[in-house]
């Protein structure tokens, strides 16, 4: 594997993916604030268009809060089958440029284009051509970050959103990181960002000024990661063989349920959603887990590991039903149910010209 300083990494991130698909397919939604999800009391926003984001409506926001911020917000129900199909189109485009593709979700992926499969002059032009093909073949826009490692490429893809790209060259990487707020860094969540703020760490420069022993005292095993990214260092390769460890789906009911049949129906719906993914990905696991969250927010799980992997929708449904029935009947209202399959089986599955990062 080439040294990380020699890699040419592109991070491609679709712009407001779910909402953009809905606006593409329904012209009446274009230019309007759109949220993918349900406007129910306990619904959440799965995705928001850029018009909705102008009102601070974002994914994971409760629907009631979203409507309070944007009273004319238009909710559309999610169509995951459509999003998955578009995602497959996009990944087919990626495959024309490299075999080293690491998907992060339906709408973003890392590409290692160090090997110049298409003979394009630079990685910058490669990213530009990929984005142009995505627009031509799907009618959707994508943003891209180009750099010499994954950490910087992902940061860069946010820099010119939507429908843009940004490059971080080896001679600018460390200095550029110093100018950014640490809350933008991968691996620094809201809780960690607040802890860093208390310690006087708000920018990459602040983080770089701290010694490794200091970071180890305050952040334990994450200290070395923070120490390196503050210097623009990330040795992780693009890993196309990264195996997904589980597939799950859950739903929050509009009201607390105590009726057995309604609760079971909710579990079966989630089992069917999980099976759709397993069948298409040809990934089959042995362990089935059912999750229940009650009205008082107490959460429990029930799991069963089968002798062989689940290879039919019927088996998954039967196992999920048996697990939920082990906690029924209940006097407490059920707020949420979920189904997860894990323990996946392993899937069976000359020198190239180096590609310059830039000119």
Automatic annotation (TrEMBL):
Which residues does the annotation list for site: Substrate discrimination? 18
Q: How is the cofactor bound?
A: Binds 2 magnesium ions per subunit.
According to the lineage, what is the superkingdom? Bacteria
**What's the name of the protein?**
DNA polymerase IV
What residue stretches are annotated with the UmuC domain? 9-189
| The protein's role, per its UniProt record | Poorly processive, error-prone DNA polymerase involved in untargeted mutagenesis. Copies undamaged DNA at stalled replication forks, which arise in vivo from mismatched or misaligned primer ends. These misaligned primers can be extended by PolIV. Exhibits no 3'-5' exonuclease (proofreading) activity. May be involved in translesional synthesis, in conjunction with the beta clamp from PolIII.
Gene this protein is translated from: dinB
Detail which positions bind Mg(2+). Answer: 13, 107
């Amino acid at each position: 594997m080439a040294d990380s300083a020699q890699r040419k990494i592109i991070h491609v991130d679709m712009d407001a993916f779910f909402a953009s698909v809905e606006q593409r397919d329904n012209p009446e939604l274009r230019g309007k604030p759109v949220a993918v999800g349900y406007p129910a009391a306990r619904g959440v926003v799965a995705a928001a268009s850029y018009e909705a984001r102008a009102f601070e409506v974002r994914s994971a926001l409760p629907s009631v809060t979203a409507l309070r911020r944007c009273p004319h917000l238009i909710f559309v129900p999610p169509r995951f089958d459509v999003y998955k199909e578009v995602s497959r189109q996009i990944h087919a485009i990626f495959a024309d440029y490299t075999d080293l593709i690491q998907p992060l979700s339906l709408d973003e992926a890392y590409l290692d284009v160090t090997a110049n499969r298409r003979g394009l002059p630079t990685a910058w032009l490669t990213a530009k051509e990929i984005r142009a093909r995505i627009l031509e073949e799907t009618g959707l826009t994508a943003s891209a970050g180009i750099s010499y490692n994954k950490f910087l490429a992902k940061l860069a893809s946010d820099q010119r959103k939507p429908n843009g790209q940004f490059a971080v060259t080896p001679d600018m990487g460390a200095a550029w990181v110093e100018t950014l707020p640490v809350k933008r860094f991968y691996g620094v969540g809201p809780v960690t960002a607040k802890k860093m703020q208390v310690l006087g760490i708000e920018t990459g420069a602040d983080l770089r000024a701290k010694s490794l022993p200091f970071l180890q005292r305050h952040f334990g095993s994450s200290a070395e990661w923070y120490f390196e990214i503050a210097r623009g260092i990330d040795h992780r390769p693009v890993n196309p063989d990264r195996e997904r460890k589980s597939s799950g789906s859950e739903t929050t009911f509009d009201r607390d349920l105590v009726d057995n049949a309604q609760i079971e129906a909710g579990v079966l719906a989630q089992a069917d959603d999980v099976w759709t993914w397993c069948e298409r990905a040809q990934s089959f696991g042995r362990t089935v887990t059912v999750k229940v969250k009650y009205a008082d927010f107490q959460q429990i799980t029930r799991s069963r590991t089968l002798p062989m992997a689940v290879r039919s929708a019927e088996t998954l449904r039967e196992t999920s039903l048996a697990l939920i029935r082990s906690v029924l009947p209940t006097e407490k209202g059920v707020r949420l149910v979920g189904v997860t399959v894990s323990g996946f089986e392993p899937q069976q599955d000359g020198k190239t010209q180096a590609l310059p990062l830039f000119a």
